[in-house]
C-alpha cells in the first residue's frame, strides 16, 4: 500500500505541475503502451510471481526448518542496504556489452517520469536480482516484516528517483538527502542522451562513490534518452536490433 500511495502522490504532483503535465499530454502512444505494460508487469505480475512460484521453489529446494531470527533493524538493513549493493552490480552488468540490449529499452524514455520507472523489455525482469533475492530472504527469515518494509521503501524511492519531484538544490532537505541517497537529479544523469556511464545506485550513492561511478551535477542534462530503430513489439519482447 505504501508503494501505491507513493505512486499516487508522485502522479498527483506531476499532474499539478504545468511543465510535467504538458510533457504527459505530448507523449506518444508507444510511450504509454511501454510504460503501462511495464508498470503492470513489474508492479503486479512480478510480485505475484515472487510470492508464489519463486517462494515455492525455495520451499522445495531448502530445508523446512530454515527459520532465521534476525533483529528488525538487521532485517531492514539486509533489504535496504545489502540487497541495494547487490543491485548496484546487477545494474552495472545490465550496462555491459553482454546485456545492454536487454536494458536499453529502459533508456528510451526522453523524460524523467514516474510512469517510465518500469519501462523495460518484459523478460528483463527475470535478470534483476530482486525477483530472486527477496523471496529467498522472506522465506528464510522467521519474521520478514522489516525486510518487507525495506522492499517497500526501496520501491517508493525507485518511483521517486524517476520523477521530477525533487528538493531545490539550495534547500536544507536537498543537502541532507544528498549525503546518502541517489536523488532524481543524480538519476537523470544516468539517463542522459550523451554517452554517460555512472550513477548506477538505487537507494544509496555510497556504492557509486566507492567505485568511482558517481557523477554530481546540479544542472539537468541537455537531453534524456537514447534513440533506437526498434519496433514496439521488439522493445517489449525481442530488443536485439542494433540501435541507430
Automatic annotation (TrEMBL):
**What Pfam families does the record point to?**
FA_hydroxylase
Spans traversing the lipid bilayer: 32-55, 67-88, 122-141
Which residue intervals define the domain Fatty acid hydroxylase in the entry? 77-213
Look up and give the membrane topology term.
Multi-pass membrane protein
Which superkingdom is the protein from? Bacteria
Tell whether rRNA-binding is among the UniProt keywords. Answer: no
Compartment(s) where it occurs, according to its Swiss-Prot or TrEMBL record: Endomembrane system
Primary place of residence? membrane
List keywords of the entry alphabetically: Lipid metabolism, Membrane, Oxidoreductase, Transmembrane, Transmembrane helix
State the protein's name: Sterol desaturase family protein
